[in-house]
Amino acid sequence: MAEAVRVLIADDQALLRGSFRVLVDSTPGMETVGEAGDGAEAVALARELTPDVILMDLRMPVMDGIAATREICSDASMAGVRVLALTMFDMDEYVYPALQAGASGFMLKDASPDDLVAGIRVIATGEGVLAPSVTRRVIANFSHRDTAARPAPRLVGLTRREQEVLVLIAKGLSNAEIADRLVISLPTVKTHVSSLLSKLNARDRAQLVIVAYESGIAERGMPPA
Fold first, then answer.
1. Domains of the chain: residue spans and CATH
2. Contact 36, 7 (CB under 8 A)
3. Which residues carry this modification: 4-aspartylphosphate (predicted)?
């Protein structure tokens, strides 16, 4: 039997923490291992408990969810911990910085229980972006504000095919959809994704989307062959 997905809940509202705990603990294959009421407590518990997934509220006292996410995702001792950022609004100005800080995706707090459970499972398996159409909208909205800072050199060393795959990942396509679009096999797509993660030093697909937008390739697209 597979081990349960271990979840840490970080939110400054006790009622919401309780609701999330009930949902997680009533879902087969999941368990709540701790609750935090602020970002600093979330970091301390993450270091102590090393959960698989942290449900991270972005707006908390003492230390906000962005700073907490950055500290967790930059700590090698917590390399296996994935952060799922939670927000009330899909255009929350905190979302893009949270993804930059290392969050593997985000969801709205009013998502359906089924969607939240599915999101936790996706994040736990190492996949990344959730609700890709919403995530792309947030990233596109905030990333273009600082175009001069886009680190285009990060794409040096990628093959043309890898760049094509990166553009399609940024558009929210699944591996199967990318295979269909590029007329290549699914295992080949997975190989390209693994190569991108390695070459770009990205934790997951969410971080690949960040790179795609910050480098400009997501909006610029591929030049003619």
1. 5-141 (3.40.50.2300), 150-220 (1.10.10.10)
2. no
3. 57
